[in-house]
Write a structure and sequence with these properties.
about 200 residues, mainly alpha, 8 helices
């Protein structure tokens, strides 16, 4: 079985049965260096797709426009975002009694981002044909991401209640988003978060 076939099978399993997919992913024994390289790779790919998809939009807020104006800048920001996600998945889970390892949190975040890249490519292909359908794909993919991340975090830390995992995940995201907004306003001013019209 080729690597591409194995990845495709694992991606299909991720969407059908994320708990089993998480277990199968851990069983692969991916080296830490490969996980770290994977984080950089998915950050670069995601940034390139985002730049192609949104770089020409005039309705972007100044911060997003600044990020997407340069694929390199977008890749750096995407890597930082993913790295913070790994840190939060690991540390917040541990704070609530979880037993997940940082290396496994890294692996899960990289894998889920890779799966989401498939949705991102599909959305980019559909966008010129039907912006409405492309927008729907974006909403569906976001819903999938929240569901998959919830299941993977529960599996990583050994949590039983996925509802509680989801609640803590949302609250953590809101707190992190608030802190990021405060930093952006502090350095770039309130206009940084307002879309250009």
């Amino acid at each position: 079985m080729t690597l591409g076939t194995r990845l495709a099978d694992l991606a299909r399993l991720t969407l059908q049965d994320p708990q089993r997919a998480a277990q199968a992913l851990l069983a692969e024994g991916v080296p830490l260096k490969a996980r770290s390289a994977g984080l950089l790779l998915v950050a670069i790919l995601s940034a390139l797709l985002a730049s192609l998809q949104g770089g020409g939009r005039e309705s972007l807020d100044p911060f997003s426009a600044l990020m997407l104006a340069s694929p390199i800048r977008a890749a750096v920001f995407q890597w930082l975002f993913l790295a913070v996600t790994v840190f939060l998945v690991h540390r917040v889970g541990r704070a609530f009694g979880g037993h997940g390892r940082f290396a496994d949190a890294l692996l899960f975040v990289v894998w889920l981002q890779l799966v989401m890249l498939g949705f991102q490519v599909l959305q980019m292909v559909v966008l010129p044909l039907s912006p409405n359908i492309a927008g729907l794909i974006g909403l569906v993919s976001f819903g999938f991401y929240l569901w998959l991340l919830t299941v993977f975090i529960a599996e990583l830390h050994g949590f039983v209640s996925r509802g509680m995992v989801f609640l803590v995940m949302v609250l953590t995201a809101l707190a992190a988003g608030f802190l990021l907004a405060m930093v952006l306003i502090l350095f770039l001013g309130p206009e940084a978060l307002m879309p250009n019209v």
